[in-house]
Design goal:
The complex is a heterodimer of chains A (about 290) and B (about 350). By secondary structure, chain A is an all-alpha fold. Chain A has eleven helices and two strands. Chain A has a two-stranded antiparallel ribbon. In chain A, strand 1 and strand 2 form a beta hairpin. Chain B contains 14 helices and two strands, in the order αααααβαααααβαααα. Classes of the chains: A mainly alpha (about 290), B mainly alpha (about 350).
């Protein structure tokens, strides 16, 4: 095992973990804030990818595609929250999960109708296609870009949560929704905002991931499982927990890929099971009901 | 329509069920083409849905990873039939036992968690099996699955005197019908037994049951194992019907379809998953003729159902349209109940 390959594994794991965090952040916040588990979260990932891809192919602009990806996913998220989830809050988590299950069917099929069932690919933008040599490791420019993207989003998210009034409001509402409402906070609107932001992030991640994993109907279903693992391990509702869990999973999957090839995801599920057995509330989560 | 004051069901009830029974028994005689195979398909998925119903409807456990048992049953059955013995009894028995054992392990782990975490961990279990099956080429055929799964052979003392075989559409259909009838009888008996009452108690108010002295964990595990075993049974039947089993049967979206069938029909009645399976399988076969995109329609109907008619189709038929079916229903189910606020 050379230094070069070690560096490569580290970089790949970091990139996978950060990207996973970007996708999962929305799900974590949705759950922490409103106890909503949106099984169709992967659909935002997929819709962002396809919308952005179409625009990027038409206009030739990677950046424009990214912008459209975010907007499309966020808009869809807002729409679903307003029309569907809002009606289901008083009914508890299971009707929400079930309704979002229906949404998966709907969105997967919608994408098939509009874009067809084929796998779509997108080349890396020329500016990000170089490889860099570093201590014997060959590092892809695009992966470094993804790391920068993930780090930027994470930093932005944490700064936003810790330094801004809205962030404070979100944290307060996650901690104790009733008290926040009593203090006059409009938690419902706040949640709409959080939900659509989370959707937008997932859409962005879906778009930037296309050069690596391609786009196809149902791509969100696979990603959702990793997101759920992250959210559960990290602690339902804890953003820091999701970051740690995402990195853990990212590294586990990357290293697992090298060590045990196709069995790598099984390692991830093994980690999940272990964590849940030892700490049923996740690494940093709060017990349900508090 | 419910029971009369003296507790006897109305005549219409018996007529309805007799017609259904006659219809099912004579199906191969009047169905043309692939009609018999299609009916077998419905029955197999009905069995699967009933298995899930034991968990969701009776115990209130929302399992998003039921495909694990369904797929496992298919793979176990296929491997046993092709490598051990083509006879029905050993392969079927071992498949059920194997699935039940795995369900025991999964259940023991998953039941340590509550509600949402339980749902997620069950989902990951089915994905775990999916990944394992795809990664291993030797036994499971990897991403391509196993084809050429033979129809099981009936034991000599049954087959010979009457010349029965499972190789024909009709022969296999009756086999499935017998299994279906047994499963329905079993679950119905379970529902009405003391064990079923404990299950219902756990579903409605687990704390109260614990205070009364019942070990909720043990009963839930028992229900989980029974449910998984039935799921494995349906997987076995599906694999032998099609002669094929693939990793797709383990992917968690198949669990989603199973949940859809149960909720669509109504998670409050044993009839619910049967009706739900019939509707779903029926749509998948016949809607395909009209549109490739029938899933969109089903998804929308499902969402509408969760929003407006969470008791499912059976409840709508019974309460709104006064069709004579089922004597009593549970007060609510996991979908339609309001959440208890602390």
């Amino acid at each position: 095992m050379t230094t070069g390959s070690l560096i490569e594994y580290f970089v790949n794991g970091l990139q996978a973990g950060l990207l996973l965090f970007v996708i999962s952040a929305g799900l974590t916040l949705s759950f922490g804030l409103m106890r909503v588990v949106n099984m169709a979260h992967g659909s935002f990932y997929m819709l962002g990818a396809f919308a952005g891809l179409t625009v990027a192919q038409r206009t030739g602009s990677f950046a424009l595609g990214a912008a459209v990806a975010v907007v499309a996913a966020a808009a869809t998220g807002w729409l679903i929250e307003r029309t569907l989830f809002r009606r289901l809050y008083p009914r508890g988590p299971f009707p929400q999960m079930l309704a979002s299950l229906g949404l998966i069917f709907v969105f997967d099929e919608l994408v098939r109708i509009v874009w067809g069932g084929d796998i779509r690919s997108m080349p890396r933008p020329p500016a990000l296609s170089h490889s860099y040599e570093w201590f014997g490791a060959s590092l892809e420019g695009y992966r470094l870009f993804l790391i920068a993207f993930g780090a930027f989003v994470s930093a932005g998210l944490f700064l936003g949560l810790v330094r801004t009034p809205i962030g404070a409001a979100v944290r307060a509402a996650v901690d104790d929704r009733e008290a926040s409402e009593l203090l006059g906070m409009n938690v419902t609107t706040l949640f709409s905002l959080v939900f659509l932001a989370g959707a937008g992030l997932a859409g962005a991640a879906g778009y930037v991931a296309i050069p690596l994993v391609n786009a196809f109907p149902g791509m969100g279903d696979d990603v959702l499982v990793s997101c759920l693992v992250v959210v559960v391990i990290g602690g339902l509702g804890s953003v820091l927990g999701s970051l740690l869990a995402s990195l853990l999973i990212g590294f586990a999957l990357t290293v697992g890929q090298v060590l045990v090839a196709g069995y790598a995801p099984a390692v991830m599920y093994g980690v999940l099971t272990l964590v849940l057995l030892m700490r049923p509330h996740g690494l940093l989560g709060k017990p349900e009901g508090t | 329509m419910t029971t009369a004051a003296n507790g006897r069901r109305p005549l219409l009830h018996w007529v309805w069920w007799s017609l259904a029974a006659v219809g099912l028994l004579s199906a191969p005689f009047f169905l043309v083409g692939s009609g018999t195979e299609f009916t077998s398909d419905i029955l197999i998925f009905a069995i699967m849905a009933i298995g899930l119903y034991v968990q969701i409807g009776l115990l209130g456990l929302v399992n998003f990873g039921f495909s694990a048992f369904y797929g496992l049953g298919g793979y176990l059955g296929a491997i046993l039939l092709m490598r051990l013995s083509p006879s029905v009894l050993p392969s079927l028995a071992l498949t059920i036992l194997g699935t039940a054992a795995v369900a025991g392990v999964f259940g023991w782990i998953a039941l340590k968690t509550r509600e949402i975490a339980f749902t997620m961990i069950t989902l990951t279990f089915s994905q775990l099996l999916y990944v394992l099956v795809v990664a291993d080429d030797g036994w499971t055929g990897g991403a391509n699955g196993l084809s050429g799964v033979p129809r099981p052979r009936l034991p000599q003392f049954i087959a010979d005197p009457l010349g029965l075989t499972l190789k024909t559409d009709a022969g296999f259909y009756y086999f499935v019908l017998v299994v279906f009838a047994l499963v329905v009888w079993f679950v119905r008996t379970l529902e009405r037994s003391r064990l079923g009452a404990v299950f219902a108690g756990i579903r409605e108010n687990e704390e109260r049951m614990t205070v009364l002295g019942y070990s909720a964990h043990r009963y839930k595990l028992a229900g989980f194992v029974i449910s998984g075993a039935i799921g494995g049974l349906s997987g076995y039947l599906n694999a032998t019907l099609l002669g094929f089993v693939g990793p797709g049967s383990l992917f968690w979206t198949v669990s989603g379809e199973a949940i859809l069938m149960v909720i669509l029909g109504g998670a409050g009645f044993l009839l619910g998953p049967i009706v739900g399976a019939a509707i779903f399988v029926g749509l998948s076969h016949y809607a395909v003729a009209y549109t490739d995109h029938w899933r969109l329609f089903v998804g929308l109907v499902f969402i509408a159902l969760v929003l407006f008619a969470p008791g499912g189709v059976v409840r709508v038929l019974r309460d709104r349209l006064q069709w004579p079916m089922t004597r009593s229903a549970k007060p609510g189910n996991v979908v339609s109940r309001e959440e208890h606020t602390a």
